[in-house]
Amino acid sequence: MSTSLTITRPDDWHLHLRDGAVLRAVLPETARDFSRAIIMPNLVPPVVTGAEAASYRDRILSALPEGMTFEPLMTLYLTEDTDPADVALAAESGLVKAVKLYPAGATTNSASGVRDFDRVRPVLEKMAEIGLPLCVHGEVTDAEIDIFDREAVFIDRVLDPVRRATPGLRVVMEHITTKDGIDYVKSNDADLGGTITTHHLIINRNHILVGGIKPHYYCLPVAKREEHRLALRAAATSGDARFFLGTDSAPHTDENKESCCGCAGCFTATNTMALLAQVFEEDEALDKLEAFASKNGPAFYRLPENDGTITLVKSDTPTDFPEKIETGEGPVTVFDPGYPVYWSVA
Ligand code: NCD
Ligand code: ZN
Predict the structure, then answer these.
(1) Lower CB density within 10 Å: C or N end of the chain?
(2) Between β-strands 330-333 and 324-327, what pairing exists: parallel, antiparallel or unpaired?
(3) 248 among known catalytic residues
């Protein structure tokens, strides 16, 4: 038995590529299946200015193996010192497609993020004026807020007030992990979109913690209860144009994951499209996969859809994905859904 599905070539609207040896190792994993990706700016030091984004883009393109094509869609890391004029210039030149908001301290390499939102008001106003989207890591960082509540609290305390204070600001609520996030995106207008990762459609918090701690399932925002995972699945597979794929594929070496203080991030670049085909098939929504992975994102970002296609094939034997990707800095473990996957990209 063999089934196949051909869709417009997908894009990844939230991706970590890192730099140097890790960049060279992980970039082909994405470029194989995806035409474009929104590139996260959380390097050390972060990508803050248009000039830094231009030079990071050059490094990405020079890391691309011969014969592969890929377009990195660059982002700027929003700091309290970001210059609105620099942002506007980088957007006008076509280099930068979004600005990334990390609340200070929310996740890996987010120390330069925003503490005082009044200090970034001029940048947000300029972005609203020119239609440049703000990509938001939606978690509060207050020590007294439980890690499983940080997304829901962020919506009330930060996201909604920021959006009300800046009419016209286009916002992507990234890597939504809760029903609260899904409901918030649904209850708003076309200026608000949401990305959903592959792994959050597959795991809930039990996968991280039951039967021994599983560092390769730990990411931020952390996976929540099953009811939240089901809300994400329903949104992703509905075809609703406000939801699109952002894998948040975030490579860390095994040494840094399998540690007494392990890094947050799941590496899904290698098998994302196969996993999604299986997820959408399970939910009897294979006909909605193209909307989620290839159409809704470009529509939100006001970019053309890709020209090419990819073909997903289902076979009657499980697909053999590599367990790890070798990088110059050590192996990076590929996300394992914990069950056999019968789909692959032809
Ligand atoms: C990301 C990383 O490793 O850069 N980790 C993660 O768990 N998603 C940071 C982020 O996007 O939060
Ligand atoms: Zn991320």
Answers:
(1) N
(2) antiparallel
(3) yes
Residue 216 Cβ inside 6 Å of ligand 1? The answer reads no
- Domains in the chain and their CATH numbers? 4-345 (3.20.20.140)
Choosing from 83, 248, 283, 320, which is the catalytic residue? 248
Kindly write down the DSSP assignment for every residue of 265-332, as one continuous string. Answer: ----TTTHHHHHHHHHHHTT-GGGHHIIIIIHHHHHHT-PPPS-EEEEEE-SS-----SEEEETTEEE
User: Six-digit token pair at 15?
Assistant: 């991706």
Q: 249 C-alpha vs ligand 1 centroid, how far in Å?
A: 8
Q: Is 250 close to ligand 1, i.e. is its CB under 6 Å away?
A: yes
User: Residue 284 corresponds to which tokens in the numbers above?
Assistant: 């009897």
The ligand 1 atom nearest the CA atom of 106: 12
Q: Residue 220: CB within 6 Å of ligand 1?
A: yes
